[in-house]
Design a protein that fits this description.
alpha/beta, 4 helices
């Protein structure tokens, strides 16, 4: 099993002991072809952020001619960051739980 990922998540899978390969969207098709040629690999997981407009179609064609499994890992959803009021942070730290104040 190998994960093909963009540069910004380089250490994430490696920390879990999973083989990873960093590439750019332009290098994706060639990288996947090379991995498909390795006998010990039967699962290739590609980060969705590496797919260009035609990249998904290219991977689909490559996957048809390979006996292994080729998956696309959905990109993480961007979550809205909510900043808590500084005074509320101090109150929560001092008393150990969140208090809702309405004035």
């Amino acid at each position: 099993m190998v994960f093909v990922i963009p540069e910004d998540v380089r250490l994430g899978f490696n920390l879990a002991g999973i083989r990873e390969l960093v590439c750019s969207p332009a290098e994706l098709a060639q990288t996947v072809r090379e991995l498909m040629g390795e006998e010990q690999i039967s699962l290739i997981v590609v980060d969705e952020r590496l797919l260009a407009r035609s990249g998904a179609e290219d991977l689909h064609v490559l996957g048809k001619n390979w006996s292994g499994l080729l998956l696309v890992l959905p990109a993480p959803a961007a979550e809205e960051v909510v900043h808590e009021d500084y005074a509320m942070q101090l109150i929560k730290k001092a008393i150990g739980y969140h208090v809702r104040l309405e004035i």
